[in-house]
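Sample A.
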Amino acid sequence: MQRRAVTTALAASALLLAAGCSSGGGDTPGGGSASSSSTAPGPSGSRETAEHTPPATGSVRVVRTVAANLKTPWGLAPLSGGGLLLADRDDGTITRIDDRTGKKTLLGSVPGVSAAGEGGLLGIALSPGHASDHLVYAYLTTDSDNRIVRMLYDTKKPSGEQLGAPDTVFKGIPKGTIHNGGRIAFGPDGMLYAGTGESGNRGLSQDRDSLGGKILRMTPEGEPAPGNPFGDSVVYSYGHRNVQGLAWDDKQRLFASEFGQDTWDELNAIKPGDDYGWPIAEGKSTDPRFHGPIAQWRTDEASPSGIAYAEGSIWMAGLRGERLWRIPLKGTQSSAPPQAFLKGTYGRLRTVVPAGGNKLWLTTSNTDGRGDPSGTDDRILEVEVS
């Protein structure tokens, strides 16, 4: 694995910028359906105190279409002052979306993106100190690997020129036509987490020296985070096939969604150092070596990408399944069968992020080469959940 810290020039630019800057669609209720689920023990350090259990059934209402006519949207990052940053997988661009009007402002292109198959410009995340350092992180596929970079976002520059030169934070993640992972997120601990895929090479998932088929945890500078389970390594958990969803609940416990192959997709509660079984196990297993999923789905019902936590539940976007799943939680277990909404209404669903309170931002993914786009695809939806 390879990593490097931020350049002095980038850091100096961030300080200068911080000194100069202050910081229609219709309603569509969904129907519900259940799927099989399994339970697993929770992460170490979980507080075993009494917790609120959400109702067994919930609801979803699409409030409005925030933006339409988007091309291959993938990563989505809400700005604290309003607005959304959106990554275009194939064009390698980042665009700001006004969440009130839908107006699009191009920040710029990310150099080095090599889009092919499932690779390209994937997840994006804002620095925990974004209000002062104005840094945007991105996970991208290059000609040689998958890597994480960060760039200065300068709102004072003209449209199309607002992204600074990318600084590589972490590189060497295996790439492939398939299974590139790609979700990145900063956790409650301020560390950067990344979900990776095994790039079609199954053996990488069980190899703790490989970065493929893992959840990685690192400092914002790309160094192994303090407290990681395998010493001087960014590997946080392993035995994954293709992780594209990361979210924390209100007790700071990490959950991840994972693509299965032919049988079971998974939602997992992540415990540092644990083995999640791939390719030896797919879905629930009786093998005590493996940490089993808290819920599982047939691949035609899910093929999950992004997840978010709201109203006591994990909300999981399904690509092939073309639906939004609700998984109510009690601790690190599912407290009731998962419930499906928006089945087939908007096609493939890629990314879901909290929008504050009981609302979510939800993106479609019908222009990714595997969907059937409508005249206004792709879209960002504002969704109210309970």
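Sample B, a different protein:
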Amino acid sequence: MTFIKENKKTVLIIAVLILAIGVLLSFALPKDKAVAKVDGEAINKDELYDVMVEQYGAATVEQLIADKIVASEAKKEKVTITDKELNEEVDKLKESYGGEEVFNQMLESNNTTVDALKDDLKNYLTIRKLLEPQIKITDEELQTYFDENKDSFGEAEQVKASHILVADEATAKEIKQKLADGADFAELAKEYSTDEGTKENGGELGFFAKGTMVTEFDDVAFTLPVNEISDPVKTDYGYHIIKVEEKKEAKEANFDDSKKEITETLIQQKMETEYSTWLEEKKKDYDIENSLESVVS
């Protein structure tokens, strides 16, 4: 989701850190207590706080002011976000990442949680509900976007397949014979496959478009009939046994089928450009005192 800026989480974390450290420095540490020492030379709490304020303070306070205004305007307009809406947005993200497993890996790699993500989503949905009534998308804009991005709305031919990858041809032939004798493909993948990313899922690759895999793999996967199992296929990665489970024909881009997706994209684009204007206008309605401005100016 393009509207939820990547640095927003960082800003919020910094805000919490500044506040938490401020409390710690004010109450927990004696005035002359060093927070660190280098060869005996102390770094005191005032130095730490000044650096944090100088580097992050202005952006953090501005973000907190914006959040307060959004919350206040949402209360005025009786805008609320339900758990159902939040869960639907999380489900959309899971789907866009290709499933719950990859989604959870994304959360872990960004050192965040579903609850933290929901906080960002709640703020995004609140802003969207406040701004959306003033956002207009014309048929001409929809058609122009479709014409300029037509290639992205078509669908290439796709195949859903699984594979078992091994290092040598002899092992591949052994697996092929076991499959011919009635062995279970998924179980053999778990036992033999050297593809750590798919073996525990029985070798499942999901759907992939023509041209995604290396040529040797692609050629077999897209010519093999559904429910058939290939002979060993040699690539630079080793020897593959491929099972084709389903196929999707190529689909040309269609404007009517794409309108919903295009509308969503244009709404997000306009929200990004109009949010700043909206916020500056709303600030005029509030008595804002920012004592940090005089500190960092």
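Observation for Sample B: The domain at 157-248 is CATH 3.10.50.40 (Chitinase A; domain 3).
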